[in-house]
Amino acid sequence: MNRLTAKVVVIGAGFAGLAAAATLFEAGFQHVQVLEAMGRVGGRVHTIRPFGSDIIELGANWIHGQEGNPLFQLGQKHGLLSECFSASTKMCLPGSVTLSDYFFKEDGRFLQAEDVEPVCAHFSQLTSRAFDSELEERHRCLSLGGYLDDAFAESPLAATEDGLKVFEWCKRGECTDEASSSLYEVSASQIGHYVALEGGFFNSLGPGGYQAFIDLLLKRLPAGVVMTNTPVANIEWALNERDQGTEPTNPVRVVCEDGQTFKADHVIVTVSLGVLKQRAALMFRPPLPDTKMAAIERLDIGTVDKIYLRFPERFWPEDCAGIQLVWDKGPEDAAVYNSELGGEAWKETWYKKVCGFDTVARHPNVLCGWITGREALHMETLEDEEVGEVCERLLRSFTGWSVPEVSQVLISRWGRDPYVRGSYTFVPPGVLAEKEHSALAAPLPLKPSSADRKALQVLFAGEATHVNFYTTTHGAYLSGIREAQRLINLYA
Q1: Residue 403 predicted with pLDDT over 50
Q2: Is residue 183 within 8 Å of 175, Cβ to Cβ?
Q3: Three-class DSSP labels, the chain
């Protein structure tokens, strides 16, 4: 068997799946089929134009870093980036602070820059210690929230009431970056395995958005390779070992929900960690090894949603890049978090998880709110109109401005999407990130010990399988190339 005859099925047409398929075709593979459950390609990239000709990103929103980022390089090469990088810094970016952010307290008082910037700067320094693996030993066993609380308490900034409230706002913003319900559910020591690329991660995408990158990958594939609306029911592997006496030519069979079957020598699985958590136990026959099932269980995926509010006219000042909400008792306050464990009182105040509402590039009368975790999942159950009304009330009560009625509400619902079940991966306390990411990425069979046992029958890609770039689009992209390269090397 060689690259001309080997049959490969790729499950999922997001960045990982499309990158894998394109890499294989360009290496000479002739029989590659991509199966996508959704009615569209892109996966967690979802670029739409609901408010006119300019794009809105319901999913992936920015490029995480520039130096060494293959997607940034791809964008530069093909002219897919914003022409004006300075303007791009005003795109939706949760947790980032600029001189143009307007901070309001719950009682409607406007917070001056001198009350906000020192806290945000110190918070950034503290999180950098965790990401740079520079934590003191006493903090390494803590959650990220626990470490931040302990370290911030040593600062004079913690002595002021406003300082503590802005600090809670900072933690809410970091929840969005981590895709977690709370920083008390994220490991402090393990986030050091994540590698942040130099160059910042502001949204620097051009007018085509992330869809332009997906389209670029699609152009590298022959027509008909990607089949949408084709959800997979089961992946049967090691068939040549189980069907002794009637050994099939191909050791893998992919069975779709509509009854279609695809025989293959290799299958690259790029579904999200959320889908694996829900379906892995029944999807694979024989079952996945214990080490892989344990990785699926131990790693976690959170939900990050966006709430786009389109108004009939702009009501915020021209120099305002975002309206940030500082609560008296926000959900990332340690006492509030602990008091709500095990109960459902938080559902009544789900909106407190929204950090604020940021301006959106190319849309002068649109604001974007971000919400994460269990509050995002609860928000997804509500009608768009109700969510819009709640957001209107927040804007009026915090700012005191004359806020018109929202003319259009657009909400992402990644947690409820049956083919995604979340946004991106995070590492809970007590979990060894490198071990579990690597276990998730390990191809099957784990030990092709005999000559008749075909290697690399089931391979795994997607952001959750990347040790250093999990959560990111470039992590997903690189993981797809990584798995394609395994097959290229196999048939070298």
Answers
A1: yes
A2: yes
A3: CCCCCCEEEEECCCHHHHHHHHHHHHCCCCEEEEECCCCCCCCCCCEECCCCCCCEECCCCCCCCCCCCHHHHHHHHHCCECCCHHHHCCCCCCCCCCCCEEEEECCCCEECHHHHHHHHHHHHHHHHHHHCCCCCHHHHCCEHHHHHHHHHCCCHHHHCHHHHHHHHHHHHHHHHHHCCCCHHHCECCHHHHCCCCCCCCCCCECCCCCHHHHHHHHCCCCCCCEECCCCEEEEECCHHHHCCCCCCCCCEEEEECCCCEEEECEEEECCCHHHHHHHHHHHEECCCCHHHHHHHHHCEEECEEEEEEECCCCCCCCCCCEEEEECCCCCCCHHHHHHCCCCCHHHHHHHHHCCEEEEECCEEEEEEEEEEHHHHHHHCCCCHHHHHHHHHHHHHHHHCCCCCCCCEEEECCCCCCCCCCCCEEECCCCCCHHHHHHHHHCCECCCCCCCCCCCCCEEECCHHHCCCCCCCHHHHHHHHHHHHHHHHHHCC
Strand 232-236 and strand 252-256: the pairing is antiparallel
Q: How many other β-carbons are positioned within 10 Å of the β-carbon of residue 443?
A: 19
pLDDT at 451 over 80: no
Q: Are 169 and 34 in contact (CB under 8 A)?
A: no
pLDDT digits (tens, 9 = 90+) for 12-45: 999 999 999 999 999 999 999 999 999 999 999 9
Count, residues in the chain:
492
pLDDT, residue 12, reads 98
What is the sign of the dihedral through the CA atoms of 255, 295, 484 and 422? positive
- Is 150 or 84 the better-scoring residue by pLDDT? 150
Query: What is the predicted pLDDT for the residue at 342?
Result: 87
The 10 Å CB-count burial string (b at 16+, else e) for 167-184 is: bbbbbbbbbbbbbbbbbb
92 has pLDDT over 50: no
Across 34-51, b (16+ Cβ under 10 Å) vs e yields bbbbbeebbbbbbbeeeb
The CA distance from 119 to 225, in Å, is 51
Which of 60-69, 202-211, 239-248, 444-453 is the least confident region? 239-248
Give dist(CA 100, CA 102) in Å, integer.
6
Task: Give buried/exposed letters for 131-153 (b at 16+ CB in 10 A, else e).
Answer: eeeebeeebeebbbbbbbbebbe
Return mean pLDDT, the chain: 93
Model-wide pTM > 0.85 = yes
Average pLDDT over residues 459-464: 98
Q: CA angle, corner 376, sides to 142 and 71, nearest 5? A: 80
Sheet holding 110-111, edge to edge: 110-111, 101-105, 322-326, 356-360, 363-372, 304-310, 408-411
